[in-house]
Each structure stands twice: as C-alpha cells, then as structure tokens.
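Hmm, what's this shape?
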Amino acid sequence: MAACSRLSSLGIRVLAQRVPWQGRCCLQETAQLVGVRRQVACRFLAQLTPRNNIKFKLDEKTAHSSLELFKKDTGVLYYMLGVDPTKVPANPERFREWAVVFGDTAITTGRHYWEVSVCKSQAFRIGVADSDMSREDCIGTNNSSWVFGYTHRKWYAMTTNEMVPVSLVGKPDRVGLLLDYEGQKLALVDPEKQSIIYVMNTNFKTPLCPAFALWDGELVTHSELQIPDSF
C-alpha cells in the first residue's frame, strides 16, 4: 500500500511504499530519493526563487550635485559641495539634500547580486531603496530604503534611521550585496571569503533600485555577476 510522507525541511512530498519485514512495516523510499545529500537540498531551495544577473549603471538624473559619475557611469566620485559641484540639471528625480545616486534598473522579483569597490572611501552607504522614495531624504533614514554603511572605521546596517552595528574585522576592498526580493532579505557579502557577513530582514513591496550615498572618495559598482554557488 502506497503512502506519502512529507520532508518538512524542503516541503517536498516523498512517495514511499509500506512493505512487510519480520512482522513489522518499514518505509522504503523511492529510488529517486535514495542518496539525496544535503547540498542537493540546498541547491533546490536556492532555485525556489529565480536567479537574475542584474545589470545596471548609475543614473545621472538622480545624482546629487556633489557627485560625479565616471567609468562609464559605474563609478561615483564625491566633491565637497560648493567647491566643484557637478553640473547635473535640475529635475524631479535628482536628490536635492543628500549625496545620493540610484542605479538605473528597477528590481521587482528574483535574487540579484552585485559588488562595490569601497577601498577609496571612508564614508558611504550602499543598499537598495524604493525607486520613488523622497528625494529630500537620505537612504537608510526612512522605511523605503535598506543599506549597509561605513564610517569612523565601523560598519552598520540601517533602515528607518536606526543603526545596528555589524561586526566586521577591517574593511575589504570590495563587498557584495545579495538581494532576495521574494525572501525579503538583503545581505552584505565578503566576496573574497565567499561568506555572508550580515543579513537584513526587509519588507519590500515596490520596485527597488540599487542605491548609494557617498561623503568621501569614490565607489565603483560591478553588476551582471553570477550569484556565488555557496549562496
């Protein structure tokens, strides 16, 4: 007589067969599931949410006047406001109060991964934000943005103007961001060690854009990257 059991950790229905053995009954798993290993299960779970290789550049229309884009709009450089401001035409999409710039691609589904070279800045925020968030706000100060920041040689996670310290020894030259839209998570990644440093739980509801704030030096973005297999 056939029976079904549930592999609760995966949510997979497993077909099993009840057979007699020495007066008792045992469950004999179907051949397809014999030898299934933990890593296979992990890969299955990762595939439940679509993987996408986001490709974006920085959107000059959103850039505050103290920011200059370079490297074919994949890098951003900070100038002290009033010394040598960049010539960004006034428009409704431009950030007016804070040195913020958005990526030019909106995210509405899937898992995405990109990296940022941070070695030439000592004060910045990187993350995601609602594409229509107020241009009067700074990313991390409202409930429309989720960021990881670095200042005074310390990392932090931030949303709704609340900072949570992130333990990280030193500062890598390059960090990664792993976004899971359906999973409602944003992770800070150490690309060299292939490890997740910190995960923020979020409440994404609207299209998101990669978001960057900068008060020193420069940042360079790297998109259209494969999500590492270990994630």
Q: What stands out?
A: Residues 130 and 208 are 5 Å apart (CA to CA).
